[in-house]
């Protein structure tokens, strides 16, 4: 059985979030739960 890998194409976007969300995201990155802000948002959305 052959498994094909698919590559996810990403695009750069800009979003505005409440300060409380940004603070939560920064705490997650600081705790090394995620690599950076973008990674945190990507994981939460996808």
Write down the secondary-structure element order: HH
- What oligomeric arrangement do these chains adopt? single chain
Total domains, how many?
1
Class from helix and strand fractions: mainly alpha
N-C termini distance: 27 Å
Helix content: 40-55%
Tell me, rounded to a whole number, the average pLDDT.
91
Number of alpha- plus pi-helical segments:
2
Which segments are poorly predicted (pLDDT under 50) over 5 or more consecutive residues?
none
The largest sheet is: none
Give the number of DSSP strands: 0
Strand content: under 5%
C-alpha-based Rg, rounded: 14 Å
Which overall shape is indicated by the principal axes computed on the Cα atoms?
A: elongated
If you had to describe this structure to a student in words, what would you say it looks like?
By secondary structure, the protein is mostly helical. It has one domain (12-46). It is built from two helices and no strands. It has helices spanning 19-30, 37-45. It starts with 18 loop residues before the first helix and ends with a helix.
Q: Which helices and strands, and how do they pair?
A:
Blueprint: H1 19-30, H2 37-45
Task: Output the keywords.
mainly alpha, 0% strand, 2 helices, 46 residues
Brief digest:
The chain has 46 residues and is mainly α.
């Amino acid at each position: 059985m052959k498994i094909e890998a698919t590559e996810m194409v990403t695009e750069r976007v800009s979003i505005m979030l409440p300060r409380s969300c940004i603070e939560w995201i920064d705490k997650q990155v600081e705790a090394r739960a995620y690599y950076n802000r973008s990674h945190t948002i990507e994981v939460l959305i996808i």
